[in-house]
Design brief:
This protein has 440 residues and is α/β, with parallel strands linked by helices. The protein contains 13 helices and 13 strands. The chain binds pyridoxal-5'-phosphate.
Length: 440
């Protein structure tokens, strides 16, 4: 399936029902047991039941995967299957896998390895980056006395234009770091063109990409977009917390890095294996392939995975379009008096389903609290937070309410959100009118 449909395409009802049944807590708060709509999946996504179950089960085995007893050997095989699952997700044949407690640690390791070993006077990155890559670049560039060059953002798209990155690259650039999708605006950076255009200027340029926010929303293809390093976070991709995953290209894998001396030159895993985490990733891949199988007859795992992710993207785009434009029974965000849609990229093919909005008459933190009163979970991004300040400032914003649904959501969830949003707008208008009356 081509993914270029402007308005996306919803799953049919039977498939959506099946998808929802495969996840934990899709419509209920696991703590209070109250009904809710969870629109904070950028902070941690719904858990796939199969991933959660296999994680708990395998984590209960005391056996050391590197030992020789039968169960231990089976655990090692489970981990190796996980490596294959990561290859299916990212599409690469050569290179190494690196894992750690978080995606941020993986990013710091990759950035440090390149900056410490590759000659060049400058490092290029963007103002939009998450602190995990931005701070890694800043720390190691300063330590190694390299100039940092920052590509500016585009407030019309919520992203960074290719040309803004390309113009900073020269023969002396040691490393480029950019993100696939923004955790502030959902905007997609044109990864394929960035890599192609930048390597026209410096053919052997080292490039590292942050795919943490994009991985659960679309296809990643290392063969098509040959970066040297890429990371993602399983807990934002339907799996458990406490794990970060990275890919390093053959040439990056061989640069001097932290490793046990007895291990091969290109080996990046450090310490005991974690088969439970890898088993969970295998379940995530199986699940996405199941969606692929619903639409496509194939025995090729990668082909099914790509189809599954493409259908996920299309369903999310259809929901995003509805959220912006509304339906016959409810008004969309773009036309709601009292709402600002920030960084409102008109071409939804260039955006993952992460929205930045604001009420004209209500603070961001207050709005998030108000939504929660109605059983809707969102998150405020405010300029006082180090996780948001640089990105928001680059767009001239002082904050936003981040709304981040997932493909498990339905049209009804979006309609309910829009109705609640309208209700809050009306309430604010009434409050304002009452205040005016009091003053008279
Ligand atoms: C775009 C992006 N990159 C990196 C990270 C870091 O992930 P983690 O905190 O799991 O290390 C996040 C976390 O939200 C993110 O949104």
């Amino acid at each position: 399936m081509k993914d270029n449909l402007q308005k996306g395409k919803l799953f049919d009802n039977a498939l959506l029902k099946n998808i929802r049944s495969k996840f934990l807590n899709v419509s209920m708060d696991p703590k209070s047991k109250k009904k809710r709509i969870f629109f904070d999946n950028s902070g941690g996504a719904f858990r796939l039941k199969a991933a959660s179950n296999v994680f708990k089960k395998i984590d209960g085995y005391p056996d050391c995967p590197e030992h020789g007893n039968k169960t231990a050997k089976w655990l090692m095989k489970t981990q190796e299957k996980g490596y294959e699952s990561i290859k299916t997700m990212l599409n690469f044949d050569s290179g190494s896998i690196v894992t750690s407690y978080t995606a941020s640690i993986v990013m710091f390791n990759m950035v440090r390895t390149v900056i410490e070993n590759i000659p060049g006077k400058n490092i290029v990155t963007t103002l939009l980056e998450h602190p995990s890559s931005y701070d890694a670049v800043t720390s190691y560039a300063n330590k190694n006395k390299k100039e940092i060059r920052l590509a500016k953002t585009n407030p019309n798209t919520g992203g960074v234009d290719v040309k803004e990155i390309v113009k900073l690259i020269d023969k002396d650039t040691a490393l480029l770091v950019f993100m696939y999708a923004s955790n502030t605006s959902g905007a997609l950076l044109d990864a394929k063109r960035i890599v192609k255009e930048c390597r026209k200027i410096k053919p052997d340029l080292y490039i590292i990409a942050d795919a943490v926010q994009h991985a659960p929303h679309g296809v990643i293809d290392i063969k098509e977009v040959p970066v040297d390093g890429l990371n993602f976070a399983p807990y934002k991709f339907f799996g458990p917390r406490g794990f970060g995953v990275g890919y390093v290209s053959p040439r990056l894998s061989k640069l001097p890095h932290d490793k046990l001396l007895a291990k091969p030159e290109s080996y990046w895993q450090l310490g005991s294996p974690a088969p439970a985490h890898f088993a969970a990733l295998t379940e995530v891949v199986k699940y996405v392939c199941t969606i692929g199988k619903y639409y496509l007859k194939s025995k090729d795992k990668r082909e099914l995975f790509v189809e599954g992710m493409t259908r996920i993207k299309l369903h999310e785009r259809a929901l995003m379009h509805t959220m912006l434009e509304g339906t016959s029974s409810v008004q969309g965000l773009r036309s709601l008096d009292g709402i600002n849609v920030y960084l409102d990229c008109k071409d939804l093919r260039k955006k993952d389903f992460i929205m930045a909005i604001g009420f004209k008459k209500l603070g961001y933190k207050e709005a998030v609290i108000e939504y929660e009163r109605y059983g809707i979970i969102t998150f405020e991004r405010v300029i006082s937070s180090p996780y948001s300040a640089r990105m928001l400032e680059s767009f001239g914003l002082d904050g936003s309410i981040r709304v981040s649904p997932l493909h498990c959501h339905s049209l009804e969830d979006i309609e309910k959100f829009l109705k609640v949003t309208k209700k809050i707008c009306k309430k604010l208008k009434k409050q304002e009118a009452n205040l005016l009356l009091e003053k008279i």
